[in-house]
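job 3f2a | input accepted
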Amino acid sequence: MTSKAEKIGAALAKAVKASTGITSATLGGALFRTNIRNVPKRDGLPGDTGPIDMRMLIDKASAGADNTLGWSVLKPGARYGTRRLRDSDAFFIVLKGHGQLIADGGREPCAEGDVVYCPRGVRHGFDNTSNDDVVMLWGLLGAGSLEGASPQDD
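job 3f2a | predicted structure (154 res):
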């Protein structure tokens, strides 16, 4: 039987391979390790609303990476504003809680264990419509920072 963690890992690996063609790490890079407790909070992005605890775990500044990995807690009523990225693919994994995925096709429920992949040019956002915190791990493939993930003009 496949565990929830194995399913999430397999889905994430599939998304990385589909967007970058990378099937294994490059040899010779330096290991980077951090802990959420040691990473400072960061302000949200334009269009975000409500209290969001966002932290950049891996990016160009911290690890010299060409991708970005972040961790966020969306308090009840908080919302990641919708955005469409021109230069990077995005993904997120809901680790705890539930809310609504916002996309071009409208809204749909999104809950713990869901893995969402957003290719370049696909509008996406998330709304915590519950009374509990939503915890998610998210990433930008092809952008070493939030600033490097250029929004697409509509």
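job 3f2a | DSSP finds two helices and nine strands in the chain.
job 3f2a | closed
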